[in-house]
Design a protein that fits this description.
By secondary structure, the chain is of the alpha/beta class. The protein contains seven helices and seven strands. The protein has one domain: NAD(P)-binding Rossmann-like Domain (Rossmann fold), CATH 3.40.50. Strands 3-2-1-4-5-6-7 form a seven-stranded parallel sheet, sandwiched between helices. The protein is globular.
């Protein structure tokens, strides 16, 4: 397999488990050097046991100062960063009448503000005209909702808008900015899926973390720089399906 991302340096937020973990592994297999940020130290330790070449940092992305300090401390070890994947996302569904302002702020700060701060710090350190990629992992929940999802849906909708704003601001720098909105991605290996879970998708199955990771790798390929400012749905066709409950 040709390693098209050889010697590229990539940061993946929320990369210790689930979709983020699949993205980090795929980037490493494509030749990139990977630095994973997550607030779950145990999961980071487990990741390093299996992928010792990966760098990891444990921090809470809701704390902007922690994020800024991470990038400042990174300058000596990694003076050059090529790829930023803003994958971290806190999924909390709380009744509208019960969610506190503090809970709202924490979800928005974790999912949206952190992505902005990471993108800003990444852009500050980028050499104008050189290769660069920002990829944000949003959700079809920015388009479709369930009760109690105000904070989560708002944060994911903000990511979609942030993406095209970044692409405009970074025009001419060599950095492209794109967004992926996953649908139902099965990340819990202990959860048993039903036949109906799969069949309701136009593609005939529930999604896998590798479905998202493979698109991230494609977007990161140096020749794929004409795709820019886009939000790409990876959901087995569910956002295009008219659904009526029987």
């Amino acid at each position: 397999m040709e390693k098209k991302l050889k010697e590229k340096r990539a940061i993946v937020t929320g990369g210790a488990k689930g979709i983020g973990k699949a993205i980090g592994i795929a980037l490493e297999e494509a030749g990139a050097r990977v630095w994973v940020i997550d607030k779950d130290q145990e999961a980071l330790d487990h990741l390093r046991q299996h992928y010792p070449r990966m760098h990891t940092s444990c921090l809470d992305l809701a704390d902007a100062e922690e994020v800024i300090n991470f990038f400042s401390n990174l300058d000596e070890a990694w003076p050059k960063i090529d790829i930023l994947v803003n994958n971290a996302g806190l999924s909390r569904f709380i009744r509208l009448t019960e969610i506190s302002i503090e809970e709202w702020d924490y979800i928005l700060n974790s999912n949206l503000r952190a992505a902005f701060v990471c993108a800003r710090e990444f852009a500050k350190r980028h050499q104008r005209g050189s290769y660069g990629r920002i990829i944000q992992i949003a959700s079809t929940r920015h388009l479709m909702s369930e009760p109690g999802g105000e904070a989560y849906s708002a944060s994911k909708g903000g990511l979609v808008s942030l993406t095209h704003a970044l692409a405009n601001s970074l025009s001419g720098t060599g950095i492209t900015a794109n967004c992926i909105s996953p649908g139902w991605i099965h990340t819990d290996e202990t959860e048993v899926l039903r036949a109906h879970d799969h069949s309701q998708h136009l593609s005939g199955r529930v999604g896998k973390p590798s479905d998202i990771a493979s698109l991230v790798i494609w977007l990161c390929h140096p020749e794929n720089d004409f795709v820019n400012a886009e939000n790409i749905y990876v959901d087995g066709g569910m956002t295009r399906k008219m659904i009526y409950e029987p």
